[in-house]
Amino acid sequence: MAAPGFIFATGIENSAPTIQHGRVRMDEMEKCGHYRHWRLDFDLVQELGLKVLRYGPPLHRTFLGPGRYDWEFADLTFNDLRLRNLATIVDLCHFGVPDWIGNFQNPDFPELFAQYAGAFARRYPWVQMYTPVNEMSVCALFSTLYGWWNEQERTDRAYVTALKHIVKANILAMHAILAVRPDALFVQSESSEYFHAESPAAISPAEFRNSRRFLSLDLNYGRRVDSQMYEYLLDNGLTRDEYHFFLSHNLKHHCIMGNDYYQSNEHHVTADGTTYPSGEIFGYALITQQYYNRYRLPVMHTETNLSEGPRGDEAVRWLRKEWANVLRVRNNGVPLVGFTWYSLIDQVDWDSALTQNKGNPNALGLYDLNRNIRPVGIAYRELVRDWMEVLPTKSVCLQVPIVMPYEYDVNSSGAEWSGAGGVESGPAAPNSEANTQ
């Protein structure tokens, strides 16, 4: 299986934030049955004709402590993906951290996470593509301004603290991975947002939110923030030295900017700063152009979905609309290199944004929870078949230099993989009772 010229992908949802002040873990892999059906799920990825999967091991089950890792499930799944020659965009942290770390207010999180990322890269050296921390902005917003997840705070200071720790963790993880895999590529999946002023009195709060939406990527890519955001960051705990860390440690030249877009990504803003959903107004193409103009990076549409709806055709129509947006962006000269329907399997409890542990299935997947293909799955399979080989030859855009697992020569890097599952203790945990490999 040759490397794809254009990246068609899906993902297996591995969100795992905590709610109820840390007492309940919302583990989507558990809720969606992936721990039981992972082999079948990988079969379904191949049934769709896909060569790339957004996927990652559950951080809270794998990272047991400083230098301590349980690789059993990751060994099973990643060895199987390697045998299938499926390339992965590895999602290392998706909205939650292990209980022993606490939450995103912990100043030790960036360095600890970088150690984990480096350990993962050493164990699975054939993996080339990563999303170290998924949707950094959403993670910080939901945890510290909305009060929904993890620390469940509602202050600007908690938000800035979480954001600086999350983005620093992302950057340090990239450095750790590159030390193992110098040709690593980072697909930074991030929500692409826009805020519409409801009235003239709402222009100022809308402008503030339209500046704040860029903060995670500004810091990640080492772009100077505007003066209002600089004052906001410093007023809420970011130091000058911390700010200059982001300016001087970015790895933008290794990055593909992943833009996630859903109907819920656009918002109306009232005069008092309250927001409420506006539905699709500008759409993916226009908003992605804004992000591209700011960062000038290759782009991938890394997440979208819509519920099947009462008539059963809404998801298919949304797929076709988003694909038309992708083609429009490419035709406008933006190097857009990939598209993702997220996710493979229906999700659970996202109707409450994972704030209520009710077990409600959400018809958002290419397959339902019984692994039966949905109409959107059939439509996506046909879309992939029709367009996969056409786009690389019809586009002036660059092609992503993906190295498929079969092409990776483990001996060329000196890296090794044991192939055995189990718990590993690194040098940071010499007194661990876990089995050392």
Automatic annotation (TrEMBL):
UniProt keywords (A-Z) are: Hydrolase
What are the BP-aspect GO terms?
carbohydrate metabolic process
Taxonomy, top ranks, is: Bacteria, Pseudomonadati, Pseudomonadota, Betaproteobacteria, Burkholderiales
Out of the domains of life, which is the source?
Bacteria
Stretches that traverse the bilayer: none
Query: What PANTHER family does the entry give?
Result: ALPHA-L-IDURONIDASE, BETA-XYLOSIDASE-LIKE PROTEIN-RELATED
Tagged with keyword Amino-acid biosynthesis: no
Could you cite one Gene Ontology molecular function of this protein? Answer: hydrolase activity, hydrolyzing O-glycosyl compounds
The name this protein carries in UniProt is Glycosyl hydrolase family protein
